[in-house]
Amino acid sequence: MILLYTIASILLTLCYIHVNKQSIKRWFFGSFHRTFYEYPNFSRWYGIRYERSDVWKTSRKESHVTGFDFPLLEYVGIKIRVGDIDFQYVKDLKQIISAKSDAVFNIGPYFKKGDTLSWNEFERILCNCFYDEIFRIFDHITPPKDKQKFIDAVLVLRSTVSIGGLYGKWLMLKNVGALIPLAQYFKSLDYADQMIALTPFMTVLDFAMFNIRDKAKTCSLKERFECLSTNFGIKYIPMLSNGEMVFCEVFVNGENNFANSMFGPSGVRCPGGVLTKLMVDGFMQFMNNSDYKVKKTVKNGREEVVLAF
């Protein structure tokens, strides 16, 4: 991996010196943003500017997200919509979720006193919980034919998008057999229903796991976003704004709703946040009512986490 990053850095430098075309520079930025973010001095020299999500104000006409291996998501039927386009799907999403505003994501029954779970076991149980609750509450969406194959494929997709870069693409090719049925399923849904079926696995699942692992404080539902963002996993968002490359660093403001700046800067909030609100309520209730211990050990240089309920 270090060798890969070294080669990428050399290519970036050669690109800047010999080609210096903005489109190519932006492509490298989107493809290797993780490497850029690790070297802020090099990033600024390359022409990347830094903004804060709780301060910066922009719009979808000016700015959109880049990177995150969008082609990988499009391969499985999720068309990422960015820029100044028709955002009717956002209105549809809000309307669908508003109709379910009294629903509760019930997480507690999936965990029993005496359970001892590895980190991977905990992740899979949460996936099963999210699957059941999503298709129970949003019962207008036809669920996949095979629940476990869907969850297996979503876990592959999570790893592929999280890792990104060349290794992420290699993971996709390695697991293409699992992703083909996922692609067929998502292509059968409209965009708002795609967001409902996928967002919890790509965002809320990480929120839940970070906070459980670090024993985030319990709190009232009014404070839920402040509590949840204590261990928010995303530190920055790579964006293009009027053609400029931008690292929008994620900071949390005082809004206890999906308008919180942890979902992006003002004017470009993630539309999936409207679904997150429903799930956060259920998750914070679970944390407040659960008695569990986190056991952390280091094995072969890697941290291993076990949860004991």
SS field, number of helical segments: 13
Global mean pLDDT: 76
Which sequence of strands runs across the widest sheet?
1-5-4-2
Order of helices and strands: HHHHEEHHEHHHHHHEEHEE
Shape: globular
**Total number of β-strand segments?**
7
Note the beta-strand portion. Answer: 5-15%
Note the gap between the termini.
37 Å
Helical residue percent band: 40-55%
Q: How many domain modules?
A: 2
Characterize the main sheet: 4 strands, mixed
Runs with pLDDT <50, length 5+?
82-86
Class computed from helices, strands and strand pairing: alpha+beta
Assembly state of the chains shown: single chain
Determine Rg (CA atoms, Å): 20 Å
What features would you describe in this structure?
Strands 1-5-4-2 form a four-stranded mixed beta sheet. Strands 3-7-6 form a three-stranded antiparallel beta sheet. The protein has helices at 2-19, 22-31, 33-38, 40-46, 70-75, 88-98, 119-137, 147-163, 165-174, 176-186, 191-213, 224-228, 273-289, and strands spanning 49-52, 63-65, 116-118, 236-241, 244-249, 293-299, 302-308. It folds into two domains: 1-47, no CATH class; 48-308, no CATH class. α11 (191-213) runs parallel beside α13 (273-289). The chain is an alpha+beta fold and 309 residues long. The radius of gyration is 20 Å and the shape is globular.
